[in-house]
Amino acid sequence: MTARGGPALDTVSALVLALGGLIETDAAVRAAARLTQERVGAGPDWCGCWLPEVKELMVQAAEEGQLDPEVDPCPATLLTAHLVGGAVTRARRGRGERPGALTGELRDLWRLIRRGIAAPTETEMPK
What we know:
Layout lengths: L7 H18 L1 H12 L12 H13 L9 H21 L7 H17 L10
């Protein structure tokens, strides 16, 4: 359980979706993320603000059996970084899209990723 009281993988999910919402709605967040992508060393590392927490939560999720036993928390963390980085790029290129479109895309993609990394539930276990 995390400090929030829920499963670590649920906390990662909430964090990814919250980041997506910020990327979509907050110009300062988009600027910080873009600066990190385009000018390495130009300022604080935007990913450094949240990625270590994601890694810690992924490790915790693995230890608690929330991740599929074949999933290594480090590549799962890296996949999360790529997903959020892609959201930054989409936000920059998709200015004319309807409000909430980016967050919806991120939610759908995260759902697919989570399905692939999560430990199978008892109903999904082979008999």
